[in-house]
Amino acid sequence: MVSFSTVGSFNISLVATDAQGNSSSFPSTPLTISVVAQAIALPTFKSLPILTASSVNGVAQYTLNAEENVDVTVDSPDGSWITPMMRYNDLPLQPVILAKRGDEVEITVNNHLTSSNEETTAHWHGFKIPGVEDGGPDFPIAVNASRTYRFTMNQAAAPLWFHPHAHGTTATQVYKGLAGAFILTDDITQSLEETNQLPTGDNDVALLVQDREFSDDPNNTGRRNLVYSNTGASGMLGNRVLVNNVEMPALEVTTSQYRFRIFNGSNARTYDFALDNNSTFYVIGTDGGLLNQPELVDHIMLAAGERAEVIINFGDSFRQNIKLVSRAFSAGGGGMGGGGSSLANGDPFDVMRFDVNVETTDPVTLYTSLPNEADINSRLTEAMSETTRTFVMSMSGMGGGGMQFLINDKLFDIDRIDEVVPSGATEIWEISNTSNIAHPFHAHAIQWQILDRGASGGTLTPSKGIDLGWKDTVLVEPDETVRFIGRFDPVINIGKYMYHCHILEHEDNGMMGTFNVIQ
User: Fold this and answer.
1) Are residues 479 and 513 in the same domain?
2) How far is CA 186 from CA 156, 399, 470, in A?
């Protein structure tokens, strides 16, 4: 028997010697033997479940029951175990709601968090809706109470999402599992799909990426608890990265193009997504919808709360195993998180694997530009702005090693209005970060266009690439200033909204403010 411990191609022949000592090779032409690497077995990828609506008088009605102590199976290369988590509707995974522009939606949230005795809300992240329906901390849902949110989807197709926003418990409730994706379509995206300019069906995949930490199981009980700590300045960083609640899943794909809608649902972690074979891919969408033209990139950085849509073409990768990874990057003073995670922010790691096992003919020719009538194409210019507002994100030490997380030197006060915005106004917001930690700045109920960014006090660089997309969450690096412009819809944007750091531990500990849009 001949065995090989190395991957590659080898030439082999046998030498025979007769009784007279004459030798000859067999066969005359050496055999070429290829040794192919066997992929390591990984847990199977799981798709997020889609909620079914009831239609009453043309209104799509949904129910979300916020539950706790739900036994959830977590699959990992280390095996599987059961962890009690929070979930909507006792589902094993976070749900997806599908809607189309123009739809009227009613979503009733029931608070069943009786054991923890916590208020909750459902914040509709990235939605253009009135303040009273936004799900911010000023409208909490008490235990055993409910609230019905009613709104019309009046914005371009986008990868939106939802999560709790009760002040002081946002971080823990999201960490324990209360979140979901809300995928909005419109006539333009449907037309692109119907004309094979965007992948559809099994080739359209939602990825909810979250990092978690679990207790050990030395007695092999098959159960582990979530481990949470809010002692680090950077927020909670887990040592395991889950995609749709599976650690390092393997997704079998065909030799075709795939549309991945990536949601960074982590509390604090930033990812620098890339492919381990250094292949390029297209970014086609950001928080607020599709880019006018696909952008060819070799990586994309997403902070907590950000989303992106990418196209990966596996056409030339038959019988290959390609990993989605997060590349190493400098996280400044924000590397270590809650509890001193062994996986620091900025460390490199694998996220999931694509196993290209099926050959197929790809019908998709990716769109090159959106139709002219797409309102998402419109660009706002600096000359349109009526006001420029400035916000400084900072951190300061406290006695006992604690930190204060501030915006404009103020901690959040739910009874204080920090900014008053006229309805219909077009404004520039200028965000500066004086701390040594990057902060993702999120404003409710509006999508922005980034004008420029650069070192604070220096020359700002005009936006390019994916910064040209519509954004509701923008990463601001240490000693960086970012300027973006947006228009507050004169009909939709009425009422109180929040702006805050989307590192959820920072938000819960005061890095948040309130703006009131008035007519």
Assistant:
1) yes
2) 6, 52, 16
CB atoms closer than 10 angstroms to residue 318? 13
CATH number of the domain enclosing 90: 2.60.40.420
- The pLDDT-based confidence of 123 (bands split at 50, 70, 90) is very high
End residue of a domain, out of 323, 358, 393? 358
> Is 258 within a domain?
yes
- The residue among 193, 214, 235 that closes a domain is 193
Rounded Cα distance, 174 and 94, in Å:
11
Task: Identify the pLDDT of residue 515.
Answer: 99
Place of tokens 């309805």: 423
What are the pLDDT digits (tens) for 301-347?
999 999 999 999 999 999 999 999 999 999 876 555 555 568 999 99
Structural domain contains residue 4: no
In the chain, the N- to C-terminal Cα span, in Å, equals: 84
Closest to 285 (Cα-Cα) out of 158, 465, 162:
158
For Cα atoms 170, 175, 181, give the angle at the middle one, nearest 5 degrees.
85
435 & 317 share domain: no
The C-alpha atoms of residue 201 and residue 203 are separated, in whole angstroms, by 5
pLDDT at 6: 44
Element (H, E) at 243: strand 240-243
Alpha-carbon separation of residue 389 from 398, 409, 446 (angstroms): 28, 15, 15
Domain extent at residue 117? 54-193
pLDDT mean across residues, the chain:
92
Q: How many residues does the chain have?
A: 519
Q: What are phi and psi of 395, to 5 degrees?
A: -135, 145
Residue 7 in this model has a pLDDT that exceeds 60: no
What is the chain's Cα-based Rg? Answer: 25
**What DSSP state is assigned to residue 193?**
H
Question: What's the CA angle centered on 45, arms 43 and 48, to 5 degrees?
Answer: 140
User: Which pLDDT score, from 0 to 100, does residue 428 have?
Assistant: 99
Query: Which residue, chain included where needed, has tokens 């129910």?
Result: 63
What local confidence, expressed as pLDDT, does residue 506 receive? 97
| Backbone angles phi and psi of 410, in degrees to 5 | -125, 140
- Residue 230, CB-side half-sphere exposure with 13 Å CA sphere: 15
